[in-house]
Amino acid sequence: MVNADVNDILFFAVAGHPITVVGADGSYTKPLTRDYIAIAPGQTLDALLHANQQPDHYYMAARAYFTAINVDFDRSTTTAIVQYNGNYTPSPSLSLPYLPNYNDTSASFNFSSSLRSLASEDHPVSVPKNVTTQLITTVSVNTLPCIPNGTCQGPNGTRFSASMNNISFILPSIDILQAYYGHIKGVYGDHFPKYPPYIFNFTDEYLPLNLEIPKLGTEVYILDYNSTVEIVFQGTNLVAGIDHPMHLHGHSFYVVGLGQGNFDPEKDPLGYNLVDPPYRNTVTVPKNGWSTIRFKADNPGVWFMHCHLDRHLTWGMDMVFIVRDGDQWDERMLPPPPDMPPC
């Protein structure tokens, strides 16, 4: 299953049939049987359905999981039918499967936090234990002053924005990959902060309005080849607390921790799963909560990291990693192909 919805995490279920998840984002997981699944934009799940019920027609259904307050969204339920083969008379009316409420954060969190890598002899895990680079980044919805004569839909006539560590990403006129490979100056900066520039109660119900305005910039973070990286994503309640499915290009990562509220750097790492964490490329940061990932930067190049809710991506909840070349010939970024068309 692939969630191709651009702006909604979805709950999905099949009436009368539990679903057994056996893979996530292309990697095997321990079998996890649930009456419903939660899947974010960009995520994939491999699942098994045992057709062991009375031959009939059964609804499968999906609808949005959405937690932002005073923000409109599509409340419809999309359906299809699982139809058994054979000679039988279908039931005259079909029941919808159980789906959690639209704003059931616990249902989404409980599903995501229950996934575990298979971690078998044939499919081992290799969780980085010695972290060489740690980043903690806030993921926030923000506001900016409305442009002159513009139509802005943010609070108090502002326009919506979004940020990581209070920097709202600005797309450059020349792509960063071309600029890095071609040593073109002035396209991007290399000062993406390792930690939030402002420390406050990130998940407080009421936050000062001055914290809502981000800086604008095109900042990257440079990683040495084969460095082991830990990133803590901290959700905030600025403007609107909401879940954020964070996606990294070029690498998969282990989701070693998930939690509610503010990340505690002293206590929360003690509960990290370093034995069989799921291996993914998109992690859902829970509303007003946090997620921790770890990966090895073993793919030289320029890699985008962003929220997979498209509105947040376009608003600036993005950054870029540059992974330097290694020492060996096969540890270096490939050159552009000779037939690459010009932009």
CATH class of the largest domain: Mainly Beta
| Biggest sheet descriptor | 6 strands, mixed
The portion of residues forming beta strands comes to 25-35%
Using the alpha-carbon principal axes, give the shape. globular
The count of β-strands is 20
Question: Cα distance, first to last residue?
Answer: 33 Å
Relative helix content: under 10%
Low-confidence stretches: none
CATH topology of the largest domain: Immunoglobulin-like
**How many domains, as an integer?**
2
> What is the mean pLDDT?
95
Describe this structure as you would to a colleague.
The protein has two domains: 113 residues, Cupredoxins -  blue copper proteins (Immunoglobulin-like, Sandwich); 191 residues, Immunoglobulin-like, CATH 2.60.40. The protein has a six-stranded mixed sheet. It has a five-stranded mixed sheet with strand order 12-20-19-14-17. The mean pLDDT is 95. It has three helices and 20 strands.
Summarize the structure.
6% of the residues lie in helices and 34% in strands.
Question: Keyphrases for this structure?
Answer:
Cu-oxidase_2nd, mainly beta, 2 domains, 6% helix, secreted, 20 strands, 343 residues, copper ion binding, Immunoglobulin-like, single chain, glycoprotein
